[in-house]
C-alpha cells in the first residue's frame, strides 16, 4: 500500500522504516531535508496516487497548522490520519472541517516509543469503519505480531481519548516504580538496589516493559547520578485528570503522579515553606533556615 507520512522524527522515522520493511511504499516529508524523501508537502501529495492517505506524525503544538497546510493540496476521497498526541477534543472539529472538502479523517493513538521499529506499536484508532478498513494493511504492519496491539476504539476522537488515558496510566505506573526505587535507596538493609529491580523482571507480579526500561537505565547509571530530578509533562496527564473531574471519576493515583511532576520543578517549594512556617507558629516546631 502507498502512504504519505508527514513528520519523520523519533516515532515517524521508525514507523516509515517498519512499514517499508513490510513492503509498503512510504513517501515521507520532514522539515529536516536530511531525512525527508521530498522537498515539500506539495511534492509529497503529487507523488501519491489518488485516493491518497497521509499520516501526520508531528508534535501536538503544530498538528493543526500542519494538517491545514496539508489539506490545501488534498481533495475528494483523500484521507488524513493524525497519529500524534493531539487532544481528543480537537478531532471532531478537524474531521468536520476536512469533511466539507470530501477529505476523510482518522485519529490514531500510537504507543511504542523508540522501540516500535523492532517491537511494533500499540494502535488505538478513532474513525469511520470504511476508513479503518482502508488503512488495515498499514495498521497490520505497524502493530506487533499476534492478536494484541490494535483496537478500533470508536468514532473520530476515540483513538486520542484512549491514548490520553493510556498515558495517564503510564504516569501512575512510572511514579509507583520511582517511589519504590527511592525507598530501596533509602533503606539501610538493601545493598544492591539495581539488583533488586533486575530480580523483578521475571516471575514477579510487577514485571513490565517500564520496569525493564528502569533496569536498563540503572545498568547505564546505577545511582542515576547523571540525571536531574526534573520531569516534564506533555499534556496527556493533565487532560486525563481534567476528564476525571468532568466525569466525576476518582483518579487518585494518576492525579498524584501528575502533581509530583509539578513538584519536581520547584527547587524550593513555596507551599512547603508555608507548611514549615505554620508548624513553627502553632507548635513552636523548629524550622530550617536557608544558608
TrEMBL record:
<keyword id="KW-0560">Oxidoreductase</keyword>
<dbReference type="InterPro" id="IPR006183">
    <property type="entry name" value="Pgluconate_DH"/>
</dbReference>
<dbReference type="Pfam" id="PF03446">
    <property type="entry name" value="NAD_binding_2"/>
</dbReference>
<dbReference type="Pfam" id="PF00393">
    <property type="entry name" value="6PGD"/>
</dbReference>
<dbReference type="InterPro" id="IPR036291">
    <property type="entry name" value="NAD(P)-bd_dom_sf"/>
</dbReference>
<feature type="domain" description="6-phosphogluconate dehydrogenase C-terminal">
    <location>
        <begin position="159"/>
        <end position="286"/>
    </location>
</feature>
<dbReference type="GO" id="GO:0004616">
    <property type="term" value="F:phosphogluconate dehydrogenase (decarboxylating) activity"/>
</dbReference>
<keyword id="KW-0311">Gluconate utilization</keyword>
<dbReference type="InterPro" id="IPR006115">
    <property type="entry name" value="6PGDH_NADP-bd"/>
</dbReference>
<dbReference type="InterPro" id="IPR006114">
    <property type="entry name" value="6PGDH_C"/>
</dbReference>
<dbReference type="InterPro" id="IPR013328">
    <property type="entry name" value="6PGD_dom2"/>
</dbReference>
<dbReference type="GO" id="GO:0019521">
    <property type="term" value="P:D-gluconate metabolic process"/>
</dbReference>
<protein>
    <submittedName>
        <fullName>6-phosphogluconate dehydrogenase Gnd</fullName>
    </submittedName>
</protein>
<dbReference type="InterPro" id="IPR004849">
    <property type="entry name" value="6DGDH_YqeC"/>
</dbReference>
<dbReference type="GO" id="GO:0050661">
    <property type="term" value="F:NADP binding"/>
</dbReference>
<comment type="similarity">
    <text>Belongs to the 6-phosphogluconate dehydrogenase family.</text>
</comment>
<dbReference type="GO" id="GO:0006098">
    <property type="term" value="P:pentose-phosphate shunt"/>
</dbReference>
<dbReference type="InterPro" id="IPR008927">
    <property type="entry name" value="6-PGluconate_DH-like_C_sf"/>
</dbReference>
Amino acid at each position: 500500500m502507498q502512504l504519505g507520512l508527514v513528520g519523520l522524527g523519533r516515532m515517524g522515522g521508525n514507523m516509515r522504516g517498519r512499514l517499508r520493511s513490510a513492503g509498503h511504499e512510504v513517501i515521507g516529508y520532514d522539515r529536516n531535508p536530511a531525512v525527508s524523501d521530498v522537498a515539500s508537502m506539495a511534492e509529497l501529495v503529487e507523488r501519491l496516487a489518488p485516493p491518497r492517505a497521509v499520516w501526520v506524525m508531528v508534535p501536538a503544538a503544530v498538528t493543526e497548522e500542519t494538517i491545514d497546510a496539508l489539506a490545501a493540496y488534498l481533495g475528494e476521497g483523500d484521507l488524513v490520519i493524525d497519529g500524534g498526541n493531539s487532544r481528543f477534543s480537537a478531532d471532531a472539529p478537524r474531521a468536520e472541517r476536512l469533511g466539507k472538502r470530501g477529505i476523510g479523517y482518522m485519529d490514531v493513538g500510537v504507543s511504542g516509543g523508540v522501540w516500535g521499529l523492532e517491537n511494533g506499536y500499540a494502535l488505538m484508532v478513532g474513525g469511520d469503519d470504511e476508513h479503518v478498513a482502508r488503512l488495515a494493511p498499514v495498521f497490520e504492519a505497524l502493530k506487533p505480531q499476534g492478536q494484541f496491539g490494535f483496537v478500533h476504539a470508536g468514532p473520530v476522537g476515540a483513538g486520542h481519548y484512549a491514548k490520553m488515558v493510556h498515558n495517564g496510566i503510564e504516569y501512575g505506573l512510572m511514579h509507583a516504580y520511582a517511589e519504590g526505587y527511592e525507598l530501596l535507596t533509602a533503606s539501610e538493609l538493601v545493598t544492591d538496589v539495581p539488583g533488586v529491580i533486575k530480580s523483578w523482571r521475571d516471575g514477579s507480579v510487577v514485571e513490565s516493559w517500564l520496569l525493564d526500561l528502569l533496569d536498563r537505565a540503572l545498568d547505564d547509571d546505577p545511582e542515576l547520578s547523571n540525571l536531574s530530578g526534573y520531569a516534564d509533562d506533555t499534556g496527556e496527564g493533565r487532560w486525563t485528570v481534567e476528564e476525571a473531574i468532568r466525569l466525576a471519576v476518582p483518579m487518585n493515583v494518576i492525579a498524584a503522579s501528575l502533581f509530583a511532576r509539578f513538584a519536581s520543578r520547584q527547587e524550593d517549594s513555596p507551599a512547603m515553606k508555608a507548611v514549615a512556617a505554620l508548624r513553627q507558629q502553632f507548635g513552636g516546631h523548629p524550622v530550617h533556615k536557608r544558608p
